[in-house]
Amino acid sequence: MQNKTPHTQEHAKPPLPPPPPPEPFLTRKPPPTPLLPFSQNNKPPHPPPTFPIYYFFYGTLTSPTQAARILDLPEEPALRKAEVTGYTIAEWGDYPALINGNGGQVVLGSAYLVKSEEEAEKLARYETNAYEVVNCLIFFKDGEQPDEAEGKVFVYAGDAQALVERRFDRMLWGRQMGGRVGL
C-alpha cells in the first residue's frame, strides 16, 4: 500500500528566523542611584552656575559683616534687599531653614553677586551639607536695576515636614552639622 498523505512544498511554511539578541542596555540593570546625604529625593544635581550670579540670603548671611567673614572679603559686601516667592522659613535648631512653601509665600532677605566658584564653595561650606543649592528667581526691592534675576539659594535638604511639625532632634542636628556650628 502506498502512503496517501500528500507532501508538497507549497504548504510548508518556512521556519521563523531566531529573535535578535537583546540590546546590551536592556539586559543590564542600571546601577543603583546613590543616596545623597539629606536628600529627600534623588534629583539630578543642578548644573554648575556661571559667574557672576546672585545668591539669595535669608538668615545669618544677611549681615554684611557675617557675609564678609564667611567669604573672606577685605570689606563688607554690597547686599541688595530682595525676596523670593514660593518658599517659607522653618526653624532648624538655632537656624532658619528655607523650605518649599506655596506660590504666594514670600521670604525677605538680601542678595549678593557671587563672583567666582571659590566664593560659591565658601558659602556651601558655611551652609554645610544640610542645605542644597537650587535655582530661584530673585526680586530686588532696592529700586536698582536689574529688578529681578535668576539666581541661587540654599534650601534645607532634610525632612522639611519634620521642621514644619516641629519634630526636631538636637542630637541628629548635631551630627548633621558635623561639628560646624557657628563658623
UniProtKB/TrEMBL annotation:
Pfam families: GGACT. The keyword Secreted does not apply. Residues 1-47 are annotated as: Disordered. Residues 14-35 have a biased composition (Pro residues). InterPro entries: AIG2-like (IPR045038), AIG2-like_dom (IPR009288), GGCT-like (IPR013024), GGCT-like_sf (IPR036568). Residues 55-158 form the Gamma-glutamylcyclotransferase AIG2-like domain. One of its GO terms (molecular function) is transferase activity. Keywords: Transferase. PANTHER family: AIG2-LIKE PROTEIN D, GAMMA-GLUTAMYLCYCLOTRANSFERASE-RELATED. Belongs to the gamma-glutamylcyclotransferase family. This is Putative gamma-glutamylcyclotransferase. It comes from Aspergillus vadensis (strain CBS 113365 / IMI 142717 / IBT 24658).
